[in-house]
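Lecture notes, continued. The same structure-token format from the folding unit now serves as the input rather than the output. Read the line below as a description of shape only.
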């Protein structure tokens, strides 16, 4: 049994939000010099950030999720972030051991490679997607070429790209940048601000309601809510949604970061 595409789920719940126009959003995440070069933009995260969450699914499911930027890597001659998301636990009477890896540009967040290693009881999947934004295609796990969107983002790239965007209460944002076109659009409404307590501490938060064009945890009738820290770190503090088998909840347990002098060595 599969828990509603949990890699895509977590990538979005750990994010904040995005502007309505993909062209505008891209401009907001980079700065251009007089000579036309794209300059590095400071972000609310760096290599070495590690977020750990407690996960509960219904009355009996328990687990742990970890999201981290593992290192700077080189792919096809380009410097990229290598991010990893892992989740393990006992959910709905079966064991879960999932890992999702993403390689994306540190400035534009455009994805180059996305890997899934999913083990959810009797359901297993191990596949890699190679994404070529300059050619407008991605190569599926079956080695076939398929069209992608402009400035494509995979699950992990979305996680970090969206944390750089503004949050304005009362606004609904729509975007079409997921690398598989049929998953778009994704819409997020910023509904309110409030103060909450999670295992990691007490925080001011912005509350979001995401709606995804798919079945699962952010379906139209799931009534999901996501709490994002209302500070410079922009991390997901908590998520709750309602499924047939009960409430699914994530709560931040710890956030580890590298020292600033190490982060400053990034490109």
């Amino acid at each position: 049994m599969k828990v509603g595409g949990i890699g895509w789920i977590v990538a979005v719940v750990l994010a904040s939000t995005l502007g309505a126009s993909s062209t505008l959003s891209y401009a907001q995440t980079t700065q251009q010099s007089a000579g036309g070069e794209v300059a590095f933009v400071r972000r609310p995260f760096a290599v070495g950030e590690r977020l750990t969450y407690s996960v509960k699914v219904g009355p009996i499911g328990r687990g742990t999720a970890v999201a981290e930027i593992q290192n700077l890597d080189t792919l096809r001659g380009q410097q990229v972030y290598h991010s990893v998301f892992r989740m393990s636990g006992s959910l709905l009477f079966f064991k879960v051991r999932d890992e999702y890896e993403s390689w994306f540009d540190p400035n534009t967040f455009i994805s180059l490679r996305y890997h899934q290693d999913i083990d959810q009881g009797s359901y297993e999947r191990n596949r890699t997607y190679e994404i070529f934004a300059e050619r407008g295609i991605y190569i599926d796990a079956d080695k076939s070429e398929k069209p992608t969107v402009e400035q494509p983002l995979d699950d992990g790239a979305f996680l970090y790209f969206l944390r750089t965007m503004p949050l304005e209460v009362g606004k609904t944002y729509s975007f079409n940048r997921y690398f598989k076109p049929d998953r778009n659009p994704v819409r997020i409404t910023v509904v309110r601000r409030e103060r909450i307590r999670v295992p990691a501490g007490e925080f001011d938060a912005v509350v979001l309601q995401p709606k995804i064009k798919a079945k699962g945890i952010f379906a139209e009738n799931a009534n999901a809510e996501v709490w994002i820290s209302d500070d410079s770190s922009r991390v997901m503090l908590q998520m709750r949604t309602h499924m047939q088998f009960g409430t699914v909840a994530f709560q931040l347990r710890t956030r580890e970061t590298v020292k600033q002098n190490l982060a400053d060595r990034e490109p």
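Point for the exam: The helical segments are 6-13, 22-29, 155-161, 260-263.
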